[in-house]
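Fill in residues.
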């Protein structure tokens, strides 16, 4: 067996699970060197970033150190942001690491025999005027923590100004009614309840006005209409204003200007609509990309113009037999990571590459502690089974546990779960700093 250099760029759900499997199977046995590259020191499951943003999850407790995890699982971690690719030399280029205006590490190059692109996606503001300057985005732990700090400061100020004033309102606007926008809206109401319990009770919960703005006809457009309708009812029950068929043309520090000329006032503004792959991927090294910078892949998950480069997760584009692309979901990244692992092992055994088929196991949306709605089974049955309430919440949590099991195994995941229960007893219900 030839010792190869395998480089995985991106430590999200798919990239980290793949690095862990390959490290355990090949790295520990000296059959390959497995390297994981990421721009952050730590990993958080991206579907939970809205909980970090509202304080329901403490990233300092739940984040995973790449370097420590690499030590335990037979691969090495390299901190850096990918800036380029040299396919002729089989090298990826990492940008210099800076501390202010001082260079910590210069530009670096890493050689590979096999490269896996698992870079994920970022929010797509579609060039909307004022979005970058006046909105918060939730693409990373750093951005989620920045929003959390701003939310606490804004709430602190509003609580002081609301004393004795029934006419006072704190307005928060969210553009995009996909899973992130809908879940964030519900979590904000939970945050208001918790902050009132911890003494910030001048601002009544009904004085928090959360508006979810969607350009389409309904919220959660990627999910079946009945699930969308159920979530819509739950949000309105919480007092969330849902504005569908509303196109935003400009964003200022006052709020959102709509296509019909009206203004949706907002003290805090979040953009959670649309996804795209990072800009540097556009036509990188002659690889085939689409209009949102995703890398075209074959059914083997190899890029269309280079069989030594795979792409998985949100940064990849693959049309299914039904003519629809594989959706940018965590379950797709998980499935693709497992499939690329099998195909890399097939290469070592001189076996042909196998084709990947996306299996939709359903989708769940958590409305904080109030409710969870969604569908299960997807195309594993002739239809989907709608679930909500406690059963749906248990299944939703189990998805995160499955990700942890892929990284840590069953025993450590059990210990992590027990630790979480203990923390709920001894720590505040909300991160307050």
């Amino acid at each position: 067996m030839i010792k190869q250099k395998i480089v995985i760029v991106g430590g999200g759900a798919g990239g980290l699970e793949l690095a862990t499997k390959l490290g355990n199977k090949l790295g520990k046995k000296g059959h390959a060197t497995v390297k994981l590259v990421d721009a952050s020191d730590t990993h958080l499951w991206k579907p939970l970033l809205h909980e970090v943003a509202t304080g329901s999850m403490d990233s300092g407790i739940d984040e995973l150190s790449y370097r420590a995890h690499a030590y335990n699982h037979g691969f090495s971690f390299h901190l850096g942001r990918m800036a380029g690719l040299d396919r002729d030399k089989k090298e990826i280029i990492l940008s210099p690491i800076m501390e202010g205006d001082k260079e910590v590490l210069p530009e670096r190059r890493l050689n590979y025999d096999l490269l896996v692109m698992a870079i994920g996606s970022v929010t797509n503001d579609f060039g909307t005027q004022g979005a970058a300057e006046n909105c918060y985005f939730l693409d990373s732990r750093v951005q989620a923590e920045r929003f959390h700090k701003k939310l606490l400061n804004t709430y602190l100020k509003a609580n002081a100004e609301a004393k004795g004033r029934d006419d006072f309102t704190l307005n928060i606007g969210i553009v995009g009614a996909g899973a992130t926008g809908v879940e964030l809206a519900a979590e904000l109401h939970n945050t208001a309840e918790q902050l009132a319990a911890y003494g910030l009770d001048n601002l009544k919960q009904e004085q928090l006005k959360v508006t979810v703005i969607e350009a389409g006809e309904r919220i959660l457009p990627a999910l079946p209409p009945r699930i969308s309708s159920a979530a819509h009812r739950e949000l309105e029950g919480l007092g969330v204003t849902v504005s569908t068929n509303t196109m935003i043309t400009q964003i200022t520090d006052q709020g959102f200007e709509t296509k019909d000329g009206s203004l949706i006032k907002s003290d805090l503004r979040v953009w959670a609509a649309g996804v795209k792959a990072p800009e540097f991927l556009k036509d990188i090294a002659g690889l085939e990309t689409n209009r949102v910078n995703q890398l075209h892949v074959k059914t083997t998950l190899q890029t269309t113009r280079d069989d030594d480069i795979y792409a998985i997760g949100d940064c990849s584009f693959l049309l299914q037999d039904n003519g629809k692309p594989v959706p940018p979901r965590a379950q797709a990244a998980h499935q693709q990571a497992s499939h690329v692992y099998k195909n890399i092992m097939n290469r070592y055994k001189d076996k042909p590459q196998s084709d990947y088929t996306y299996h939709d196991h359903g989708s769940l949306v958590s409305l904080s502690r109030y409710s969870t709605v969604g569908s299960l089974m997807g195309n594993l049955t002739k239809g989907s089974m709608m679930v909500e309430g406690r059963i749906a919440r248990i299944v939703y949590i189990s998805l995160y546990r499955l990700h942890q099991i892929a990284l840590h195994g069953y025993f450590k995941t059990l210990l992590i779960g027990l630790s979480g229960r203990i923390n709920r007893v001894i720590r505040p219900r909300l991160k307050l700093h």
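The longest helix spans residues 141-161.
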